Amino acid sequence: MARAVHPGLRKVHAQVAAFAEVWEEANALTLAGTGPLWVVLGDSTAQGIGAPGYEQGYVGQLRHMLERRSGEPWRVLNLSRSGARAANVVEAQLPRLEALEVRPELVTCAIGANDLVARTPPERLNSDLRTILARLPEGAVIATVPQGLRPTRAAEVNDIIRGEAPAAGLRVADVWAHTGPPWRGKFSADGFHPGALGYADWARAFAEALADRYR
Fold first, then answer.
1. pLDDT (tens digit, 9 = 90+) per residue, 16-37?
2. Quick one: CATH architecture of 2-209?
3. Per-domain residue ranges of the chain
4. Closest by alpha carbon to 55, among 93, 88, 26, 34?
């Protein structure tokens, strides 16, 4: 009902199917191509929902950073899904990653925001997060959840990520540390998803986590 009366919500919601289709088409080309492969796991933020175009989400912006640093084009295989919770990464996205015949150069994961919004039981979310940490390949990057969502619970989730990811051989993109106020101009028309400026903060968080690897 809210989407029917709020044009901003309706506009952003319309991106969900459109961006998913574009990414699926791009994924097919990615698998047929050559060059360093980056596999993306996550939710609507990985799809770029809220940005003017799918390439202006954090994935597209980080891709440009990686290409400038490495001097070569990167292939992106985006396995994320809008609305995904941590359980979806465990049940659907990680199996697709693990079934790949080629070893990715980079794997990133940003998940948990929808669990906070939907109030996934803490024990379920914590368990799913630990499963993700255990199954991500060594050197992968996992993001903390952003600011603006149930701060007490978000802090608990981020404590697990920051505290346990390094021992699992993972890097941490501290999105929380990069997404504080001032927020003016950083959100999309729905007031929830980041816009292009907001996603720039996300991209910087990932770039910071990879700074010593891709200079």
1. 999 999 999 999 999 888 889 9
2. 3-Layer(aba) Sandwich (3.40)
3. 2-209
4. 26
